[in-house]
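Homework-ish question, so no full write-ups if that breaks the rules, but can someone show me the predicted structure for this set?
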Amino acid sequence: MDLKNKRVLSGIQPSGLLHLGNYFGMIEKMKDFQDNSELFCFVANYHSLTTINDKDSLRDFTDDLFINLISLGIDPNKSTIWIQSDVPEVTELSWILSNFSSVGLMQRSTAYKDKISKGFKPMMGLFSYPILMAADILSFNAEIIPVGEDQKQHIEMTRDIALKFNNAFGEVLTLPEPLIDKKKSLVPGTDNQKMSKSYNNIISIFDKEEIIKEQVYNIVTDSAGLNEKKNINSPLFKIYSLFLNGDEINELKNRYETPGLKYMEVKQELYEIILEYFSEFRKIKTDLLSKPDDIEDLKKIGKNRAQEIAREVLDKVKFATGLI
Ligand code: ADP
Ligand code: TRP
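A: Not a homework solution, just the prediction itself:
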């Protein structure tokens, strides 16, 4: 797929601390788009309202994620970065789109079924989550949506909703395509399941050093003896590899296959590599946090840029439907 000059958009929910899975699975890829494509990136706080009902948590996670994305390299000079609730045009479009979204389509949502099976209450916000997500995408005429495998169905639903709308009113909405990178799309957690804030198995990016150390030391390893070869199909090897190039991965593989390797030593190395890798980002964050006025300015810039586009699309939609 040629991504040059395409409009790329993705959002991330402010529902917990950022971890290596978020960075390598999504944020790093978004950064790659900044130079040759038009990147749109937002903090999906309306979406988090479906699962967080605590005022302070939602506000703090939202601010923290906005600052973290910028600290990690989403550059507000090259890209548009904003907080979802700052652009209410999107929720207005969402209502219009709900008239082109069948109940059957929503009922097929695996994310919804999954959440319900985990004990979440069957609220309308959760049920119609895919419609708001469609509005997030369609409000900006986004063409490419880099997401994890778990979000693929949501993009298909977005296309379905946009097609129904376009069939009724002409070519108003742009049909997006998902972009799923199989390579790093599944970063394992410390217990070898998918790294996720809901599984208590994360290695976080901006936590205190002692906590990151504890998380790295908690990565599960097998009971292979000192003089046995070690298994590379393991979370410690896979997480370590995220920070290495091809030759370095082969070197680590050799070390795993040579008797004498101590997991403790590998964990200490990995811990140091993680700190080193993110140290510049941490400095940028500390610096940004000392300038709250700059943060507020960046929020306003993002909001204005995003709102201008969302307004235009919304007006087109309202005109097409007879609402204006
Ligand atoms: P979590 O599973 O921790 O709740 P989110 O669902 O908020 O994470 O994911 C935000 C973004 O990060 C999504 O694009 C998702 O695909 C990506 N992501 C999350 N966890 C991982 C992982 N373990 N490996 C790769 N990408 C991930
Ligand atoms: N549903 C996505 C997630 O949980 C977050 C999200 C909301 C999103 N709106 C979006 C992602 C629009 C891409 C495009 O990870």
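Now go work out the reasoning yourself. Hint: The CA atoms of residues 78 and 114 lie 36 Å apart.
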